Protein backbone atom coordinates (compact mmCIF):
# COMPACT_ATOMS: atom_id res chain seq x y z
CA UNK A 1 0.00 0.00 0.00
CA UNK A 2 1.41 3.33 -0.99
CA UNK A 3 0.44 6.77 0.27
CA UNK A 4 2.23 9.67 -1.37
CA UNK A 5 0.01 12.36 0.16
CA UNK A 6 -0.50 13.99 3.57
CA UNK A 7 -4.03 14.21 5.04
CA UNK A 8 -3.85 18.02 4.88
CA UNK A 9 -3.01 17.88 1.17
CA UNK A 10 -5.93 15.55 0.46
CA UNK A 11 -8.38 17.65 2.45
CA UNK A 12 -7.37 20.79 0.61
CA UNK A 13 -7.74 19.08 -2.80
CA UNK A 14 -11.13 17.63 -1.83
CA UNK A 15 -12.30 21.07 -0.66
CA UNK A 16 -11.07 22.72 -3.83
CA UNK A 17 -12.18 20.19 -6.46
CA UNK A 18 -14.93 18.22 -4.62
CA UNK A 19 -15.26 14.44 -4.56
CA UNK A 20 -15.11 11.93 -6.14
CA UNK A 21 -11.60 12.94 -7.15
CA UNK A 22 -8.60 11.12 -8.60
CA UNK A 23 -5.25 12.41 -7.32
CA UNK A 24 -1.87 11.37 -8.79
CA UNK A 25 1.64 12.04 -7.57
CA UNK A 26 4.20 12.84 -10.29
CA UNK A 27 7.22 11.99 -8.10
CA UNK A 28 6.01 8.41 -7.55
CA UNK A 29 5.61 7.93 -11.32
CA UNK A 30 9.12 9.28 -11.96
CA UNK A 31 10.50 6.96 -9.27
CA UNK A 32 8.90 3.90 -10.88
CA UNK A 33 10.22 4.87 -14.31
CA UNK A 34 13.72 5.20 -12.85
CA UNK A 35 13.46 1.69 -11.40
CA UNK A 36 13.11 0.30 -14.93
CA UNK A 37 15.93 2.24 -16.51
CA UNK A 38 17.93 -0.91 -17.29
CA UNK A 39 15.48 -1.75 -20.08
CA UNK A 40 16.31 -0.18 -23.47
CA UNK A 41 12.71 0.89 -23.90
CA UNK A 42 9.96 1.30 -21.34
CA UNK A 43 6.66 1.47 -23.18
CA UNK A 44 3.75 2.63 -21.00
CA UNK A 45 0.58 0.56 -21.47
CA UNK A 46 -1.61 3.66 -21.32
CA UNK A 47 -4.80 1.66 -20.82
CA UNK A 48 -3.80 1.77 -17.13
CA UNK A 49 -4.10 5.58 -16.98
CA UNK A 50 -4.44 7.44 -20.23
CA UNK A 51 -4.81 11.07 -19.13
CA UNK A 52 -2.89 13.20 -21.66
CA UNK A 53 -1.01 15.01 -18.88
CA UNK A 54 0.19 11.69 -17.44
CA UNK A 55 1.26 10.67 -20.96
CA UNK A 56 3.19 13.95 -21.30
CA UNK A 57 4.95 13.26 -18.02
CA UNK A 58 5.90 9.80 -19.35
CA UNK A 59 7.20 11.29 -22.60
CA UNK A 60 9.30 13.85 -20.75
CA UNK A 61 10.95 10.96 -18.90
CA UNK A 62 11.81 9.17 -22.15
CA UNK A 63 9.05 6.58 -21.87
CA UNK A 64 7.38 5.35 -25.09
CA UNK A 65 3.73 4.45 -25.31
CA UNK A 66 1.44 1.57 -26.24
CA UNK A 67 -2.05 2.21 -27.60
CA UNK A 68 -4.85 -0.35 -27.86
CA UNK A 69 -7.46 1.70 -29.68
CA UNK A 70 -7.76 4.56 -32.15
CA UNK A 71 -8.65 6.77 -29.20
CA UNK A 72 -5.44 5.84 -27.39
CA UNK A 73 -3.41 6.58 -30.55
CA UNK A 74 -5.00 10.03 -30.71
CA UNK A 75 -4.25 10.55 -27.00
CA UNK A 76 -0.58 9.67 -27.60
CA UNK A 77 -0.42 12.15 -30.50
CA UNK A 78 -2.09 14.84 -28.36
CA UNK A 79 0.55 14.22 -25.67
CA UNK A 80 3.31 14.95 -28.18
CA UNK A 81 4.55 11.47 -29.07
CA UNK A 82 5.94 11.37 -32.61
CA UNK A 83 4.38 8.72 -34.83
CA UNK A 84 6.48 6.72 -37.31
CA UNK A 85 8.55 3.57 -37.72
CA UNK A 86 11.38 4.49 -35.35
CA UNK A 87 13.46 1.88 -33.58
CA UNK A 88 12.06 2.08 -31.06
CA UNK A 89 8.87 3.69 -32.32
CA UNK A 90 7.24 6.26 -30.02
CA UNK A 91 3.79 4.72 -30.41
CA UNK A 92 2.87 1.07 -31.02
CA UNK A 93 -0.69 -0.12 -31.55
CA UNK A 94 -1.37 -3.50 -29.88
CA UNK A 95 -4.55 -5.44 -30.58
CA UNK A 96 -6.08 -8.70 -31.75
CA UNK A 97 -8.59 -7.01 -34.00
CA UNK A 98 -8.56 -3.73 -35.90
CA UNK A 99 -11.59 -1.82 -37.14
CA UNK A 100 -11.53 0.22 -40.37
CA UNK A 101 -11.16 3.58 -38.61
CA UNK A 102 -8.19 2.33 -36.58
CA UNK A 103 -6.62 0.80 -39.68
CA UNK A 104 -6.87 4.16 -41.45
CA UNK A 105 -5.28 5.90 -38.45
CA UNK A 106 -2.30 3.53 -38.12
CA UNK A 107 -1.71 3.85 -41.87
CA UNK A 108 -2.01 7.66 -41.86
CA UNK A 109 0.40 8.09 -38.94
CA UNK A 110 2.68 5.11 -39.66
CA UNK A 111 2.07 3.58 -36.26
CA UNK A 112 3.64 0.09 -36.01
CA UNK A 113 1.06 -2.60 -35.32
CA UNK A 114 1.62 -5.31 -32.73
CA UNK A 115 -0.63 -7.93 -34.26
CA UNK A 116 -2.46 -10.55 -32.24
CA UNK A 117 -4.12 -12.18 -35.26
CA UNK A 118 -3.02 -13.12 -38.76
CA UNK A 119 -6.10 -11.40 -40.22
CA UNK A 120 -4.76 -8.10 -38.93
CA UNK A 121 -1.59 -8.72 -40.96
CA UNK A 122 -3.62 -9.37 -44.13
CA UNK A 123 -5.71 -6.23 -43.60
CA UNK A 124 -2.65 -4.10 -42.94
CA UNK A 125 -0.71 -5.51 -45.91
CA UNK A 126 -3.61 -4.68 -48.24
CA UNK A 127 -3.73 -1.09 -46.99
CA UNK A 128 -0.08 -0.30 -46.28
CA UNK A 129 2.72 -2.41 -47.78
CA UNK A 130 6.02 -1.81 -45.99
CA UNK A 131 4.24 -1.18 -42.66
CA UNK A 132 6.18 -2.19 -39.55
CA UNK A 133 4.68 -4.94 -37.44
CA UNK A 134 5.33 -6.80 -34.23
CA UNK A 135 3.96 -10.26 -33.62
CA UNK A 136 2.24 -10.78 -30.28
CA UNK A 137 2.57 -14.48 -29.56
CA UNK A 138 0.49 -16.54 -27.15
CA UNK A 139 3.04 -19.07 -25.88
CA UNK A 140 0.34 -21.51 -24.74
CA UNK A 141 0.42 -20.59 -21.04
CA UNK A 142 -0.32 -17.51 -18.99
CA UNK A 143 -1.09 -16.18 -15.54
CA UNK A 144 -2.88 -13.24 -13.94
CA UNK A 145 -4.23 -11.88 -10.67
CA UNK A 146 -7.61 -13.11 -11.93
CA UNK A 147 -8.82 -15.27 -14.84
CA UNK A 148 -9.97 -12.06 -16.47
CA UNK A 149 -6.42 -10.75 -16.69
CA UNK A 150 -4.71 -13.98 -17.76
CA UNK A 151 -3.76 -13.39 -21.38
CA UNK A 152 -2.00 -16.64 -22.29
CA UNK A 153 -3.09 -20.22 -22.92
CA UNK A 154 -5.81 -21.67 -25.09
CA UNK A 155 -8.64 -19.93 -23.22
CA UNK A 156 -7.21 -16.51 -23.97
CA UNK A 157 -8.28 -14.62 -27.09
CA UNK A 158 -4.96 -12.79 -27.11
CA UNK A 159 -1.99 -13.19 -29.38
CA UNK A 160 -1.13 -15.45 -32.28
CA UNK A 161 -1.02 -19.05 -31.13
CA UNK A 162 2.64 -20.15 -30.87
CA UNK A 163 2.38 -22.92 -33.46
CA UNK A 164 1.17 -20.36 -36.03
CA UNK A 165 4.34 -18.28 -35.92
CA UNK A 166 5.51 -19.54 -39.33
CA UNK A 167 2.08 -18.79 -40.86
CA UNK A 168 2.27 -15.25 -39.46
CA UNK A 169 5.80 -14.81 -40.81
CA UNK A 170 4.61 -16.02 -44.22
CA UNK A 171 1.79 -13.43 -44.12
CA UNK A 172 4.39 -10.76 -43.36
CA UNK A 173 6.55 -11.86 -46.29
CA UNK A 174 3.79 -12.22 -48.87
CA UNK A 175 2.17 -8.99 -47.67
CA UNK A 176 5.41 -7.00 -47.97
CA UNK A 177 5.34 -6.01 -44.29
CA UNK A 178 8.45 -5.44 -42.14
CA UNK A 179 8.94 -7.42 -38.93
CA UNK A 180 10.06 -5.09 -36.13
CA UNK A 181 9.93 -7.51 -33.22
CA UNK A 182 8.38 -10.30 -31.20
CA UNK A 183 6.16 -9.60 -28.21
CA UNK A 184 4.59 -11.59 -25.40
CA UNK A 185 2.25 -10.39 -22.66
CA UNK A 186 0.77 -13.32 -20.82
CA UNK A 187 -0.99 -11.62 -17.94
CA UNK A 188 -1.05 -9.08 -15.16
CA UNK A 189 0.80 -10.16 -12.02
CA UNK A 190 4.31 -11.54 -12.32
CA UNK A 191 4.96 -15.10 -11.35
CA UNK A 192 8.69 -15.77 -11.10
CA UNK A 193 8.06 -19.48 -11.57
CA UNK A 194 6.68 -18.71 -14.99
CA UNK A 195 9.20 -16.08 -15.93
CA UNK A 196 12.03 -18.47 -16.85
CA UNK A 197 9.54 -20.34 -19.00
CA UNK A 198 8.37 -17.12 -20.70
CA UNK A 199 11.95 -16.03 -21.44
CA UNK A 200 12.77 -19.51 -22.75
CA UNK A 201 9.68 -19.43 -24.98
CA UNK A 202 10.78 -16.09 -26.42
CA UNK A 203 14.25 -17.45 -27.28
CA UNK A 204 12.66 -20.39 -29.11
CA UNK A 205 10.42 -18.02 -31.09
CA UNK A 206 13.45 -15.98 -32.12
CA UNK A 207 15.15 -19.21 -33.25
CA UNK A 208 12.15 -20.16 -35.39
CA UNK A 209 11.90 -16.63 -36.80
CA UNK A 210 15.54 -16.78 -37.86
CA UNK A 211 15.07 -20.28 -39.29
CA UNK A 212 12.18 -18.94 -41.40
CA UNK A 213 14.60 -16.38 -42.86
CA UNK A 214 13.32 -13.27 -41.04
CA UNK A 215 15.28 -10.63 -39.21
CA UNK A 216 13.98 -8.55 -36.27
CA UNK A 217 15.13 -5.56 -34.23
CA UNK A 218 13.66 -6.06 -30.77
CA UNK A 219 11.85 -8.29 -28.33
CA UNK A 220 9.22 -7.17 -25.83
CA UNK A 221 8.64 -8.67 -22.41
CA UNK A 222 5.12 -7.19 -22.27
CA UNK A 223 3.81 -5.83 -18.99
CA UNK A 224 2.37 -7.55 -15.94
CA UNK A 225 4.65 -6.28 -13.15
CA UNK A 226 2.68 -6.44 -9.92
CA UNK A 227 2.56 -3.94 -7.08
CA UNK A 228 2.01 -4.52 -3.35
CA UNK A 229 -1.70 -3.77 -2.88
CA UNK A 230 -1.70 -5.33 0.62
CA UNK A 231 0.68 -4.76 3.49
CA UNK A 232 3.22 -7.55 3.29
CA UNK A 233 2.82 -8.17 -0.47
CA UNK A 234 6.22 -8.59 -2.11
CA UNK A 235 7.59 -5.67 -4.10
CA UNK A 236 9.00 -6.63 -7.44
CA UNK A 237 12.76 -6.97 -7.78
CA UNK A 238 13.19 -5.02 -11.00
CA UNK A 239 16.92 -5.81 -11.25
CA UNK A 240 16.20 -9.55 -11.10
CA UNK A 241 13.37 -9.14 -13.59
CA UNK A 242 15.62 -7.27 -15.99
CA UNK A 243 18.41 -9.80 -15.45
CA UNK A 244 16.25 -12.72 -16.60
CA UNK A 245 15.07 -10.88 -19.70
CA UNK A 246 18.54 -9.56 -20.46
CA UNK A 247 19.87 -13.12 -20.44
CA UNK A 248 17.11 -14.10 -22.90
CA UNK A 249 17.95 -11.11 -25.06
CA UNK A 250 21.64 -12.12 -25.15
CA UNK A 251 20.70 -15.64 -26.25
CA UNK A 252 18.44 -14.16 -28.91
CA UNK A 253 21.24 -11.85 -30.09
CA UNK A 254 23.56 -14.80 -30.55
CA UNK A 255 20.87 -16.43 -32.72
CA UNK A 256 20.24 -13.42 -34.96
CA UNK A 257 23.88 -12.29 -34.97
CA UNK A 258 23.29 -8.65 -34.00
CA UNK A 259 22.04 -6.42 -31.16
CA UNK A 260 18.37 -6.56 -30.22
CA UNK A 261 16.38 -3.95 -28.31
CA UNK A 262 14.70 -5.11 -25.09
CA UNK A 263 11.32 -3.53 -24.40
CA UNK A 264 9.10 -3.66 -21.32
CA UNK A 265 5.43 -2.65 -21.46
CA UNK A 266 4.16 -2.00 -17.95
CA UNK A 267 0.94 -0.25 -17.07
CA UNK A 268 0.14 -0.89 -13.40
CA UNK A 269 3.73 -0.71 -12.11
CA UNK A 270 4.27 2.83 -13.39
CA UNK A 271 1.08 4.44 -12.09
CA UNK A 272 -0.90 2.32 -9.59
CA UNK A 273 0.89 3.52 -6.46
CA UNK A 274 0.87 7.15 -7.57
CA UNK A 275 -2.89 7.49 -7.28
CA UNK A 276 -5.70 7.69 -4.75
CA UNK A 277 -9.43 8.01 -5.20
CA UNK A 278 -11.13 10.38 -2.77
CA UNK A 279 -14.74 10.05 -1.72
CA UNK A 280 -16.87 11.66 0.98
CA UNK A 281 -18.82 9.68 3.55
CA UNK A 282 -22.50 10.60 3.02
CA UNK A 283 -24.30 8.09 5.24
CA UNK A 284 -23.68 5.29 7.72
CA UNK A 285 -26.13 2.58 8.70
CA UNK A 286 -26.45 -0.87 10.19
CA UNK A 287 -28.01 -3.91 8.57
CA UNK A 288 -28.07 -6.92 10.89
CA UNK A 289 -24.47 -7.67 11.75
CA UNK A 290 -23.05 -5.31 9.11
CA UNK A 291 -22.12 -1.68 9.53
CA UNK A 292 -22.25 0.23 6.23
CA UNK A 293 -20.25 3.31 5.32
CA UNK A 294 -21.78 4.84 2.20
CA UNK A 295 -19.70 7.19 0.10
CA UNK A 296 -20.21 9.39 -2.97
CA UNK A 297 -18.00 7.25 -5.21
CA UNK A 298 -18.88 3.86 -6.65
CA UNK A 299 -17.84 1.22 -9.15
CA UNK A 300 -18.59 3.63 -11.96
CA UNK A 301 -15.34 5.25 -10.76
CA UNK A 302 -13.33 2.30 -9.40
CA UNK A 303 -14.48 -0.95 -10.96
CA UNK A 304 -11.69 -3.25 -9.78
CA UNK A 305 -13.24 -4.53 -6.51
CA UNK A 306 -16.61 -5.25 -8.16
CA UNK A 307 -15.06 -6.75 -11.29
CA UNK A 308 -12.17 -8.82 -9.91
CA UNK A 309 -12.75 -8.83 -6.14
CA UNK A 310 -9.59 -6.69 -5.96
CA UNK A 311 -8.29 -5.41 -2.64
CA UNK A 312 -7.53 -1.72 -2.18
CA UNK A 313 -6.31 -0.35 1.15
CA UNK A 314 -8.49 2.46 2.50
CA UNK A 315 -8.22 5.21 5.10
CA UNK A 316 -10.83 7.41 6.67
CA UNK A 317 -9.69 10.97 7.35
CA UNK A 318 -11.38 13.15 9.94
CA UNK A 319 -11.19 16.88 9.25
CA UNK A 320 -9.97 17.51 12.80
CA UNK A 321 -7.34 14.79 12.41
CA UNK A 322 -8.78 12.81 15.33
CA UNK A 323 -7.71 9.18 15.49
CA UNK A 324 -10.75 6.91 15.75
CA UNK A 325 -11.08 3.33 16.91
CA UNK A 326 -11.16 0.75 14.13
CA UNK A 327 -14.60 -0.48 13.21
CA UNK A 328 -15.50 -3.36 10.89
CA UNK A 329 -17.35 -1.68 8.04
CA UNK A 330 -18.65 -2.46 4.59
CA UNK A 331 -17.66 0.43 2.36
CA UNK A 332 -20.17 0.92 -0.43
CA UNK A 333 -20.99 3.45 -3.12
CA UNK A 334 -24.10 5.23 -4.34
CA UNK A 335 -25.01 2.97 -7.29
CA UNK A 336 -28.29 1.07 -7.37
CA UNK A 337 -26.58 -2.31 -7.31
CA UNK A 338 -25.54 -4.58 -4.41
CA UNK A 339 -22.13 -5.21 -5.99
CA UNK A 340 -21.25 -1.55 -5.53
CA UNK A 341 -19.01 -2.42 -2.60
CA UNK A 342 -15.31 -1.57 -2.24
CA UNK A 343 -14.68 -4.11 0.52
CA UNK A 344 -15.00 -7.35 -1.41
CA UNK A 345 -13.60 -10.82 -1.08
CA UNK A 346 -12.82 -13.07 -4.03
CA UNK A 347 -15.88 -13.66 -6.14
CA UNK A 348 -17.58 -10.43 -5.04
CA UNK A 349 -18.47 -11.41 -1.47
CA UNK A 350 -19.27 -8.45 0.76
CA UNK A 351 -16.54 -8.25 3.36
CA UNK A 352 -16.47 -5.82 6.28
CA UNK A 353 -13.03 -4.41 6.84
CA UNK A 354 -11.50 -2.76 9.88
CA UNK A 355 -11.51 0.94 9.19
CA UNK A 356 -11.49 4.03 11.41
CA UNK A 357 -15.10 4.44 12.58
CA UNK A 358 -16.36 6.81 9.90
CA UNK A 359 -19.08 9.40 10.07
CA UNK A 360 -20.78 11.68 7.59
CA UNK A 361 -18.41 14.28 6.17
CA UNK A 362 -15.23 12.24 6.63
CA UNK A 363 -12.95 11.68 3.66
CA UNK A 364 -12.44 8.17 2.30
CA UNK A 365 -9.07 7.56 0.65
CA UNK A 366 -8.83 4.50 -1.60
CA UNK A 367 -5.18 3.74 -2.22
CA UNK A 368 -3.24 2.39 -5.21
CA UNK A 369 -5.88 3.44 -7.68
CA UNK A 370 -3.61 5.14 -10.23
CA UNK A 371 -3.85 2.13 -12.56
CA UNK A 372 -7.11 0.83 -14.04
CA UNK A 373 -9.04 3.32 -11.93
CA UNK A 374 -10.09 6.37 -13.90
CA UNK A 375 -9.37 4.63 -17.21
CA UNK A 376 -12.03 1.98 -16.46
CA UNK A 377 -14.66 4.44 -15.21
CA UNK A 378 -18.10 4.59 -16.77
CA UNK A 379 -21.16 6.80 -16.81
CA UNK A 380 -23.35 4.13 -15.17
CA UNK A 381 -26.35 5.63 -13.38
CA UNK A 382 -25.74 8.80 -15.46
CA UNK A 383 -22.85 9.77 -13.25
CA UNK A 384 -20.36 12.16 -14.86
CA UNK A 385 -16.66 11.22 -15.01
CA UNK A 386 -14.79 12.51 -11.95
CA UNK A 387 -12.06 15.15 -12.06
CA UNK A 388 -8.33 14.29 -11.98
CA UNK A 389 -5.55 16.22 -10.26
CA UNK A 390 -1.79 15.85 -10.66
CA UNK A 391 0.42 16.79 -7.71
CA UNK A 392 4.01 17.66 -8.53
CA UNK A 393 5.94 18.74 -5.45
CA UNK A 394 4.13 21.81 -4.11
CA UNK A 395 2.16 22.23 -7.31
CA UNK A 396 -1.28 20.63 -7.73
CA UNK A 397 -3.24 21.12 -10.91
CA UNK A 398 -6.42 19.91 -12.47
CA UNK A 399 -5.61 17.58 -15.38
CA UNK A 400 -9.20 16.65 -16.20
CA UNK A 401 -12.20 18.72 -15.24
CA UNK A 402 -15.29 16.98 -13.95
CA UNK A 403 -17.72 16.01 -16.68
CA UNK A 404 -21.18 17.56 -16.34
CA UNK A 405 -24.52 15.78 -16.55
CA UNK A 406 -25.50 18.36 -19.16
CA UNK A 407 -22.63 17.14 -21.38
CA UNK A 408 -23.94 13.60 -21.09
CA UNK A 409 -27.51 14.58 -21.90
CA UNK A 410 -26.40 16.67 -24.85
CA UNK A 411 -25.24 13.52 -26.69
CA UNK A 412 -28.90 12.54 -26.89
CA UNK A 413 -30.72 15.86 -26.76
CA UNK A 414 -28.78 17.14 -29.76
CA UNK A 415 -30.50 14.52 -31.96
N1 LIG B 1 0.65 -5.09 -22.56
C1 LIG B 1 -0.50 -5.66 -22.99
C2 LIG B 1 -0.58 -6.20 -24.33
C3 LIG B 1 -1.61 -5.73 -22.13
O1 LIG B 1 -2.73 -6.32 -22.54
C4 LIG B 1 -1.51 -5.18 -20.83
C5 LIG B 1 -2.65 -5.24 -19.91
C6 LIG B 1 -0.30 -4.58 -20.44
C7 LIG B 1 0.76 -4.57 -21.33
C8 LIG B 1 -0.10 -3.96 -19.10
O2 LIG B 1 -0.30 -4.85 -18.06
P1 LIG B 1 0.10 -4.40 -16.55
O3 LIG B 1 1.57 -4.10 -16.55
O4 LIG B 1 -0.70 -3.18 -16.24
O5 LIG B 1 -0.29 -5.56 -15.72
N2 LIG B 1 -7.98 -4.10 -15.66
C9 LIG B 1 -7.09 -5.06 -15.04
C10 LIG B 1 -5.81 -5.24 -15.79
C11 LIG B 1 -6.02 -5.56 -17.25
C12 LIG B 1 -4.73 -5.64 -18.01
C13 LIG B 1 -4.96 -5.72 -19.45
N3 LIG B 1 -3.76 -5.73 -20.21
C14 LIG B 1 -6.86 -4.66 -13.58
O6 LIG B 1 -7.48 -3.70 -13.13
O7 LIG B 1 -6.09 -5.31 -12.87
Automatic annotation (TrEMBL):
CDD domains listed in its UniProt record: PLPDE_III_DapDC
Positions of substrate binding: 268, 304, 308, 337, 372
Binding site for pyridoxal 5'-phosphate: 224, 265-268, 372
Cited Pfam families: Orn_Arg_deC_N, Orn_DAP_Arg_deC
Keywords carried by this UniProt record: Amino-acid biosynthesis, Decarboxylase, Lyase, Lysine biosynthesis, Pyridoxal phosphate
Keyword Electron transport: no
Cofactor: pyridoxal 5'-phosphate
InterPro entries: Ala_racemase/Decarboxylase_C, DAP_deCOOHase_LysA, De-COase2_C, De-COase2_CS, De-COase2_N, De-COase2_pyr-phos_BS, Orn/DAP/Arg_de-COase, PLP-binding_barrel
Single GO MF descriptor: diaminopimelate decarboxylase activity
Keyword Transferase: no
N6-(pyridoxal phosphate)lysine modifications at: 47
Residues of the Orn/DAP/Arg decarboxylase 2 C-terminal domain: 22-370
Catalytic reaction equation(s): meso-2,6-diaminopimelate + H(+) = L-lysine + CO2
UniProt cross-references to NCBIfam families, sorted A to Z: lysA (TIGR01048)
Family under the similarity heading: Belongs to the Orn/Lys/Arg decarboxylase class-II family. LysA subfamily.
Subunit structure: Homodimer.
Role: Specifically catalyzes the decarboxylation of meso-diaminopimelate (meso-DAP) to L-lysine.
Name of the featured protein: Diaminopimelate decarboxylase
Organism: Comamonas terrae
Lineage: Bacteria, Pseudomonadati, Pseudomonadota, Betaproteobacteria, Burkholderiales
Amino acid sequence: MSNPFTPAQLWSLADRYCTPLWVYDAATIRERIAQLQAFDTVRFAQKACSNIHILRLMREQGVKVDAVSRGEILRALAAGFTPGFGEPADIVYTADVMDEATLATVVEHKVPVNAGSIDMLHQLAAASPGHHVWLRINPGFGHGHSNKTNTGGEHSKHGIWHSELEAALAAIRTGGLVLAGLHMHIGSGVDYGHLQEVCGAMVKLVERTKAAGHDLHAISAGGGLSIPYRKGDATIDTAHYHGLWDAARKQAESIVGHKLGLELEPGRFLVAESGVLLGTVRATKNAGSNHFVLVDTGFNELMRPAMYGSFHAMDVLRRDGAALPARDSVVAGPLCESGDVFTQGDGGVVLPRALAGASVGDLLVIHDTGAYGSSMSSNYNTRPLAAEVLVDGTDARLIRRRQTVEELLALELSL
